[in-house]
Design goal:
Number of strands: 7
Number of domains: 2
Radius of gyration: 21 Å
Order of helices and strands: HHHHHHEEEHHEHEEHHHE
Strand order of the largest sheet: 1-2-3-4
Distance between the termini: 28 Å
Helix content: 40-55%
Structural class: alpha/beta
């Protein structure tokens, strides 16, 4: 970023922080260590503003900055402090995100994505999860060793694998609904991924929007794990229809849900940018791909009690494992 603009942003952020802190009592400032946290945030942005937009290096610090911003937002709510919108901070991180993701869009992730729909799906997944984590492995067009077609013996491919979150994604075009061989392969992938404790989420053209995908991902994993709404919170149910997962899978799900909620609160401009390109794509595909443009992709487990991302995020703290060893509520997890 140019020096003149860099200085302007730094001055705005410092002035806004000073004005906010001046309106608080000493006790309020001390309770959440706001002066120290604001100073740390300004230092992070000073480093970020020196980075060249569009480069891979330009988004490496975004995950740390985003978690700091999100943690402050959550503490303002928890401690009943005055709202602070972080407008300048959000403007900066979204400018860097859009610049970087535009490079991925125009090159279709340097040729890794075969189809434009897959490119858009990867952009959303980057905003939801990959770019909110300092360490995360995302594999495009990955062939896990366990995913073997029983009829042919060939290794089958997953469009996207988020290994740290035990999530996989398949982008389904029109052939997935018209060709029997494709339908059979899709079913094999769903069942074999479930057997190997991996949640596979099919996505098609009709679902390419930030709102739809955030809700789809969170609720797909909720249902796969076996989380059901019960009173104030969620209960972990054990039955033949869910994956009977272990603690690490539940923790991975909780982190995924937290990251997605973080993205919904901080990356609005970037999500709107992605939504604009997704809408253009959907509009061009309605006549060419009528089924995948109008019908939701099949889910491993379909429940009629889908919850909003916000509901799921704020209910995570009430999750209880229905086991003999523990009936105590899980503690609330802020993104780490």
């Amino acid at each position: 970023m140019e020096l003149k603009l860099r200085k302007k942003y730094k001055a705005i952020i410092k002035s806004n922080h000073k004005a906010y802190l001046a309106a608080l009592t000493e006790q309020q400032k001390a309770t959440a260590n706001l002066e120290g946290r604001f100073k740390n945030l300004r230092n992070k942005f000073s480093t970020q503003l020196r980075k060249e937009s569009g480069s891979a290096n330009s988004v490496k610090l975004i995950s740390t900055i985003s978690r700091n911003l999100f943690g402050l937002q959550e503490d303002f709510i928890r401690l009943s402090l005055p709202r602070y919108e972080f407008q300048a901070e959000k403007e900066i991180i979204n400018e860097y995100l859009v610049s970087f993701l535009e490079q991925q869009r125009t090159t279709q992730y340097a040729g890794e994505c075969q189809y434009y729909g897959e490119t858009l799906l990867n952009i959303y997944l980057d905003l939801f999860i990959t770019l909110t984590c300092s360490k995360n492995s995302k594999n495009i067009e990955h062939k896990p060793g366990f995913l073997i077609n029983p009829k042919t013996g060939n290794n089958l491919e997953l469009d996207v694998l988020l290994e740290n979150f035990l999530l996989a994604f398949e982008f389904q075009g029109e052939s997935h609904y018209r060709e029997e061989k494709e339908k059979e392969k899709d079913q094999v992938k769903l069942s074999m991924c479930a057997e190997n404790k991996l949640v596979l989420i099919p996505v098609n053209i009709s679902q390419l929007s930030s709102t739809n995908l955030m809700k789809l991902i969170c609720n797909s994993v909720k249902d796969a794990i076996g989380l059901d709404a019960e009173g104030k919170g969620l209960m972990l149910q054990r039955n033949k229809n869910n994956l009977n997962l272990h603690k690490k899978h539940l923790n991975a799900y909780m982190k995924a849900c937290q990251r997605i909620y973080l993205a919904s609160t901080l990356f609005q401009r970037s999500l709107e940018w992605a939504d604009d390109y997704a809408k253009r794509f959907r509009d061009t595909q309605q006549s060419r791909n009528p089924i995948s443009s109008s019908t939701e992709a099949p889910r491993l487990s379909l429940n009629d009690n889908d919850m909003s991302v916000q509901e799921l995020y704020y209910n995570l703290k009430f999750i209880k494992a229905s086991t003999k060893s523990s009936q105590r509520p899980q503690r609330s997890c802020a993104p780490t």
